[in-house]
Design goal:
Order of helices and strands: EHHHHHHEHEHEHEH
Helix content: 40-55%
Strand order of the largest sheet: 3-2-1-4-5
Number of helices: 10
Shape: globular
Oligomer: single chain
Distance between the termini: 13 Å
Number of strands: 5
Length: 207
Amino acid sequence: MAASYDAILFDFDGVLADTEPLHCEAWRRALEPLGITFDWELYRARFIGISDANLLSQLAALAVPPRAVEELWRQFGFKQKLFKEMALANPPVPDEVRRILSSLHSHKIGLVSSTSRSEIEALLSAAAIAHHFDVLVCAEDVTNLKPDPEPYLLAARCLEARCPLVVEDSEAGVTSGRAAGFEVIRVAGPWELPAKLRSKLDGLATD
């Protein structure tokens, strides 16, 4: 018999939307004037699922010569502008993801992301899926980001959920959800989400 979940808590980047390549390109273009270069392979291996502060700390140390993190932070506004322009022009949320969100009427739905609220809200609106979420927990809402359990614990508390199901793509996110005491399913990307989530909810998966 399938487990009974009273809420479903989704990560955003890499789960509902294929935004990570856009984040990578925005950071690459924003930091290039400082002489910092990296490719998608490095970004995918080291920077997905971590906070912007952690990402910039690592990139500052990788720079030749090393840069002060404060220099990189000055490019944050430019990075956000680039990301929004690319994402809003073509919201990277597959139709299959939109359809499964529309089918989850019997569950409370939360979004738990380490991304800033301004980026998340703009994308949810552009993709026409904002109305599906009962709560958003974003970077500004917590003291400790993933892999700390605080973001998922806050979302569950806001929804008064005792047994939520977490859907994540990154190691940091999986660690956060499990540390909160919740069951987690991991997806490789939004293309995998609909079938894997439906199997779990139908009691067909054997995680």
